[in-house]
From TrEMBL:
Keywords: Glycoprotein, Leucine-rich repeat, Repeat, Signal. InterPro entries: Leu-rich_rpt, Leu-rich_rpt_typical-subtyp, LRR_dom_sf, LRRNT, SLRP. GO terms for cellular component: extracellular space. SMART domains: LRR_TYP, LRRNT. This is LRRNT domain-containing protein. Residues 60-95 form the LRRNT domain. SUPFAM superfamilies: L domain-like. Coiled coil: none annotated. PANTHER family: AGAP008170-PA (PTHR45712), LUMICAN-LIKE (PTHR45712:SF17).
Length: 363
């Protein structure tokens, strides 16, 4: 086997795709992604003339908002400088766009007439945590998607409606999660909490999330790998914290964990137990931008391992294969080791037998 084609020298790749946002402000107006059932247009600003909507649409529409004719269940009130909710929201509203305003609190009767709300967009306002918000939300029994990124919340609102499927609370000021606050959310699959002030995760904080797929706790103040995470999580993001090690049983019980991101932490080899990543469900492991000095032991079933920008000086084949044989080999497809203290000529001779299905090696 000729190894040369595998050796690519690409020092910094990925900065461009890393910054792609999941917000889609492009595309055809009012088009709903049929596959995800999600609206693809979060704002009509700059797309259509407000007065045109008002002139041609006979349905009632709050003065502060735009009501598209083609999509009567949507109400666009984003980017209006609003300090409170428009009054008389039409009862037909199921998609309410209120992002990019200055709303800090909601009046007690704000949602009395919009009990059919399924999507509520409140990103980039100044919402504060208070009981009124909790009470209002608990009455929205049909709500499935709640966007409250970039607000001033200091806690997760209690009384969240039990039908929620996604809850986005990234970039708030949340310092702790009260036990049981998610306990009724049996359908929640996505929970964003990155960019908050979480230092520890208390016992019971995530109980009652049997369907959770993606949990993002990146960019918080965690100093240890948190205990008490929901065991059904498949994508766990813990990048940009201050985690220095992982114990032997950190990942015990995570039967479905596939993607684990721990980049930009303070991981060091002494703190990393040899069996910490011994989890055969893992597909992708991101340990880039840490302080590792040697390659950690990973399961042979792992497909993608990112170790770039560490302090790695030695490549230890036993990290990837404890034994090598016809059926004992690493299934790794992509291995990134660039930005370390190692050069390709330092690779031990036997690595090819172990990493025999590798597509790309960056070194
Ligand atoms: C709810 O609808 C009723 C009847 O249309 C109206 O009188 C009331 O002002 C509405 N309340 C709000 C908060 O929009
Ligand atoms: C919540 O719903 C209950 C029952 O439907 C109703 O009596 C109450 O006024 C609602 N509260 C708010 C704040 O809308
Ligand atoms: C929300 O936080 C920002 C800073 O993050 C601050 O400028 C603003 O005054 C806060 N708003 C409220 C209502 O507290
Ligand atoms: C959860 O989802 C299922 C299937 O889509 C649905 O039947 C059920 O009513 C939902 N649960 C709640 C509390 O909305
Ligand atoms: C990895 O886990 C399996 C069971 O899940 C166990 O049998 C094995 O001893 C573990 N290996 C290490 C190195 O901890
Ligand atoms: C490679 O790692 C194994 C355990 O994972 C260790 O026993 C061995 O000493 C390491 N080899 C070198 C050369 O550091």
């Amino acid at each position: 086997m000729d190894v040369r084609p595998l050796l690519l020298v690409l020092p910094v790749l990925g900065l461009s795709w890393a910054s792609t946002l999941d917000l889609d402000y492009g595309g055809v107006p009012l088009w709903i992604n049929r596959f995800l059932g999600e609206p693809s247009v979060f704002s009509l600003r700059g797309r259509m003339d407000s007065s045109w909507y008002r002139a041609v649409n006979s349905q009632s529409c709050p003065l502060e908002c735009d009501c598209p004719i083609q999509w009567p269940s949507a109400l666009y009130c984003d980017q209006r400088g609003l300090h409170s909710l428009p009054s008389s929201l039409p009862a037909r509203t199921q998609y309410l766009f209120l992002q990019d305003n200055s709303i800090s609190g909601l009046q007690a009767d704000a949602f009395t007439n919009v009990t059919r709300l399924r999507w509520l967009f409140l990103d980039r306002n100044q919402l504060l945590s208070d009981q009124a918000l909790a009470t209002l939300l608990s009455n929205l029994t049909r709500l499935e998607n709640l966007f409250m990124n970039h607000n001033n919340l200091t806690e997760v609102p209690s009384g969240l409606p039990p039908g929620l499927r996604q809850l986005r609370l990234a970039h708030n000021h949340i310092g702790q999660i009260s036990p049981g606050v998610f306990k009724n959310l049996h359908n929640l699959t996505l929970l964003l909490l990155q960019g908050n002030r979480l230092k520890t995760i208390r016992e019971g904080a995530f109980t009652g999330l049997p369907s959770i797929n993606l949990l993002d706790l990146s960019n918080n103040l965690l100093e240890e790998f948190p205990k008490h995470l929901p065991p059904s999580v498949q994508q766990l993001y813990l990048s940009e914290n201050s985690i220095s090690g992982l114990s032997q049983d950190c990942l015990k019980g995570f039967q479905s964990l596939r993607y684990l991101r721990l980049s930009h932490n303070q991981l060091q080899n002494p703190g990393l137990a040899p069996g910490a990543f011994n989890l055969s469900s893992l597909v992708e492991l991101d340990l880039s931008y840490n302080q590792l000095t040697s390659t950690p032991v990973v399961p042979t079933t792992l497909l993608y391992l990112y170790l770039e920008a560490n302090l790695i000086q030695e490549f230890n084949v036993s990290s990837f294969c404890s034994t090598v044989g016809p059926r004992d080999y690493s299934h790794m497809r992509i291995l990134r080791l660039d930005g370390n203290r190692m050069a390709s000529h330092q690779l031990p001779a036997d690595w090819v037998m172990c990493l025999r299905v590798l597509h790309h090696l960056f070194i």
